[in-house]
Amino acid sequence: MGTTTPPRTLAEALRARDDESLAGLLRARPDLLSPVPGDITQLATRAGTRASVVRALEHLDRFALQTAEALAVAPDPAPYGTLLGLLTGDGQDDGEQLEDAGAAITEALPGALGTLREQALVWGDDDRLRLVRTARELLSPSPQHPSPTGLGPTVAEATAGMSPGRLQEILTAAGLPATHDPVSAVTALTALFTDRTRMGELLDTAPMEALAVLDRLVWGPPYGEVTPNPTPPVKWLRDRGLLLPVSTRTVVLPREAALHLRAGRAHRVPEPRPPVVAAVAERDPQAVDSAAAGQAFLAVSTVEELLKLWNGGGPVVLRAGGLSVRELRKTATALDVQEPVAAFWVELAYAAGLLASDGEADERYAPTPAYDEWLERSAQERWVALATAWLTATRTSGLVGGQDAKGRALSALGPDLDRSAAPEVRHRVLALLGALPAGTAPDPETVLARLRWERPLRGTAAGDGMDLRSRIALWTLNESELLGITGRGALASQTRALLTGGPAEAAGLLAPLLPEPLDHVLLQADLTAVAPGPLERPLAEMLGALADIESKGGATVYRFTPGSVRRALDAGQTAADLHAFLATHSRTPVPQPLSYLIDDVARRHGHLRIGAASSYVRCDDEAVLGEILADKRSAALRLRRIAPTVLAALADPASLLDGLREMGYAPAAESADGDVLITRAGAHRTPPRSAPAPVPEGPPVPDTTLLGAAVRAIRAGDNAATVVKAQPDAGPAVPPGTLPRTTPAETLVTVQAAAMTGSTVWIGYVNAEGAASQRVIAPVRVEGGFVTAYDHTADEVRTYPLHRITGVAELAE
Q: Considering 9, 428, 799, 812, which has the largest number of Cβ atoms within 10 A of its Cβ?
């Protein structure tokens, strides 16, 4: 067996991979598939573009990134041993690292290197590891972009352009033999800085102040400013090349000297192992599930209450989009929560598709038709819908109240709240919680530390010094408690089921933990009713129309008032209906004061009739009309008597109704036929609306079918691009990119012969748009001026008009 030739380029390294490995690359970097590369060379070129490399680096964990950073400052190519030495050091340090750090790095390095190879950021065998050039440029040190390792340029890079005389002065001061060859001088100085014995002897002669200067530069940044007349310690370092000039006022500590001072380590603290998520409390799993279920029920009730609040048409949409600060404050007061919490519930309802703008001229927010369907579902199914929407939503309510990049305030339901990283961060936080034993509540700081290790380059720095991913993680922990994803800080069993088993399994686990809806209340003599638990929806709706909610909690207290009773009568109920309703649904006798209240309001309800004149008031009792006219509060209504039992008004009927009710009367509106109008609570709905689509973080991860098809297409295109082609009659090989040229007769004869023998040929083809291309085909049938063939380039059967084929050639042996 012959020896395998090492790959000379990234394209050759990718070409040597098997199909499974290529599919792994495309899965890890899906941006390479848009569009599908024509061959391996195109794939390698695209994998080396700056945008794609930056995206790949952002998805590396900290140790994989540290490995890439070490390769960026290592020689190119670098042996595996050199890379390992940059991460573990030479073992001659002063004990800063833990004793097992070297063993941990040695154990983790193959995996990190495998990740870099899989993502085509590193290629080559272990004795010749190469970092992709674009990644090396991004991670290499420069004055404008210091290296993440804190290392400066090499001696050769820092002395480029330095005069031979200055090099001789440095060699002499360092005690090295003089040479007039600049290359030899640089080599000698580099050898000195990389020799631990001689370098130690040189530093032993350094003044203490000079060593202090080196201590400030050794871990970066390696650049410092000097005056035209530097201090003696700086002059001592500069004379011996330990500080090399970058400009007239800037010097740099060369990489080789810094590595000696660091004991050979590229990083101060290599992190081969991810931080452990620590626990702050161990709780009873059943108590956790019960607490989460109670909060889940409260979440469903809160969203329902919010949408009932906006049932007849909610707040006006701001011109720039979103909810005004005043309306958010009103909503928070109505829900009895803080404004950030109210923003979370509003955004959750919007993400679930239950809330949207109505699109009218006077645009307002209102429930969608999907809200009515959501109400018909069980409580556990409603919670699953909310939780699923939250998990996948990219809108981030925690940003409400902050400012965008232009200094404009971010409002709830407004634009610019989408953060594409939010779903991934939420799932990762919950996965970390799920990895803990059941009932374990994690320490938030250790969760953040773990996330930073997993994606050290992701996120945009915030004004408070915390990156975006960390802020989203903290919001995730808080929102999980509000939504019932967690209970008392620990992940609930129903959430584990939602993440692993699906919505049906989660709903099944949650259902036994939710309270059963009640069909009764307890009436009390002080005109209140107590609901000792959640009520069945028809009962809750009717009681909500008949009474006002006074307090909420484990038990809800309703209060009956003249206004609330009148509201029920306006909705079409009669006094007899209300008495029957209370008698049916009360576990206690109906108090006499409540019966008197209903009868008294019903007796006066509709005694006055309002119609359109502009509007009018009519009443069989002339004394009542006289009382209204005599009341000074009626002046704004501009009333006048036009008949003994009729008053006319300039106000519209709605204003007249409101005005008389404020005066203490109980009027009823009537139609043009004189019938009483029943005013039911208006249910304003938007047109059908779909939930807002999450903003993708990048290209979607392709499925197995797409990956397989893409790999086959790339292989086929690569085979077609790299196959050796020759002209007929054993002519010379055709230069790449040149289309074959044959006469129509020769083309017809050649493809017919190939169809008969089943051989493969090379053709030039010009499509209907005039674009020319080369293709490798296996003709199957030639008839009617068309050739049907298997196209190896496209990996499918196609039909080509013969008149569009520029020429045909056999493949070289």
A: 428
